[in-house]
Structure formats: structure tokens, C-alpha cells
């Protein structure tokens, strides 16, 4: 770890009592300098943590990409394949294991992160270092995301073409993340082709027993921290998605006591009262729209994509 040492020079003047005002000014300047040093230390610590993660893990973590909607991709660290013989089929844990086994072509593969559950099909994106497991994609609006709880639990969409839209399924996402250190990356592209991204460390969701409660850690990127709900406490109290549970139109788990965020936004998502970012909203084609609710694909991470 790098260490930044900032020398402090304390000047002692043999001044008499009438010079107290100057001493007070000096103390204020000194306090401000200490504050700036603490800010720099925190920024340096975060940068070192991110650099260490990149160097040690080669991004063997959950990565989620979002293009005019979302594409979510995941891969765990140091996945080890069991050895076996006979006719027993051993599946890769996820796309990271697929990549490490020598398969370098993007496409659909069958994975099994937990031996207690049946294997399932995922899209593995082998670009950008390879081994990314797509957990969600929005690209053309062909798939309706206004689904019930069971559909979001099991997953839905098309699993054939590279740009097919899909939600992998909350149970599958939980099994991919369970007991693994993961990160979440969200890439947003607007209708002008502007691309931004947001990365979150320590991306986790709970099991269905806790309604797939969401956790994310440190944020970095150039899209803005939309999942935290905003820059002040009032915004965060009503819009932060950290610690929120999943809701669908038929299962209202949000904190909006006089309404149903999932029903208003016609999708399943981690809603608060309701959201500052919703990547499962209605896919609006290019153009201008107006409506009672902002029920489109709302970034608030720095841009909106296909929103009314």
C-alpha cells in the first residue's frame, strides 16, 4: 500500500498577547489543512482498495452492464472445478469458470453455481477481460418486464441471441452471488450514444426468505451514484436502494405507504419511496413522452435512458 506523507511545518513565533488574533487565524488555517489531509487520505485509501482489487482478482467479480436498460454480468474469484470421472457432468460455476476453462467465445453456456440446484443457461460476455455473467439486459424493448413475483424469481426473457433481453431470475442471481465477493457494474447508453458506467463493490442480495434484499458497497465511475439515492440525507432516506427489498406489482414490499411503486412503474425492482434509479422500467423508444409517473428506464446515475 502506498503511503502519502504530507509534512506539517509548525511555526512558533515569540509574539506578545495582542497578537492573539493572528494565532486564531493560524489555528483555523491549520484545522482546514488537517481536514484536507483527511479527505486526501480517504481518497487514497479508496483508490488503493480499488487498485488492489483489480490487481489481485482481475475483476473476478460480479459485473453488470446496462445498455439503454441493463446488462448484468457476474464472475466470482478463484473458481475451482471439481475433478471427477465416469459419466457425471460437471458444470462451470459461472462465466468466470467458463473463461478459465479455455472457452473464450461470448455466448450462452450452462452453469451451476450451487450443486444443490439444477444448472441453468446464462450469457457469458468474454470481452473486457472475459468471464462476465449477464444477469440482465435491456436493448430493444421486445421483452415485457411488467411481471409478477414468481416470474422475477425464476427469470424470463429470450436466451438465444447476443442482444436478447432477459432477467436471469432472483434465485439464480442469489446463487451466483452467495458466499462470493462480487462487484456490480452498470453501463448506460442514451439515444445519442453517450456511454457512462457505475461500479459498486460488494454487490449482494439476500435469499427469497428476506425478499432478495439488496446491498452495495463503495461506488466509483462516471455515471453518478444513483443506487445511494442522491447527495443529501433527505434524498437518500426516500430514494436510496441500499437495504431495500424486491417488489413486484403483485407483491408490494416498498416503503411507499400510500402507493405501490412496482405497480406504478410496471416492473419488479428494489424500490424505496420509490426510486432514484430503476433499470427495469418501461422501455420507451426514442422520442418525447409525458406521463403521471417516471416509469421508464430511469438512470439518475447521470442520464435517463428511454424514460418519459
UniProtKB/TrEMBL annotation:
GO-annotated biological processes: blood coagulation, common pathway; fibrinolysis; platelet aggregation; positive regulation of heterotypic cell-cell adhesion
Secreted listed as a keyword: yes
GO molecular function per UniProt: extracellular matrix structural constituent; protein-macromolecule adaptor activity
GO CC, alphabetical: fibrinogen complex
PROSITE patterns: FIBRINOGEN_C_1, FIBRINOGEN_C_2
Lineage top rank: taxon: Eukaryota
Subcellular location: Secreted
Signal peptide region: 1-16
Bilayer-crossing regions: none
Protein keywords: Disulfide bond, Glycoprotein, Secreted, Signal
Name of this chain's protein: Fibrinogen C-terminal domain-containing protein
Originating species: Hymenochirus boettgeri (Congo dwarf clawed frog)
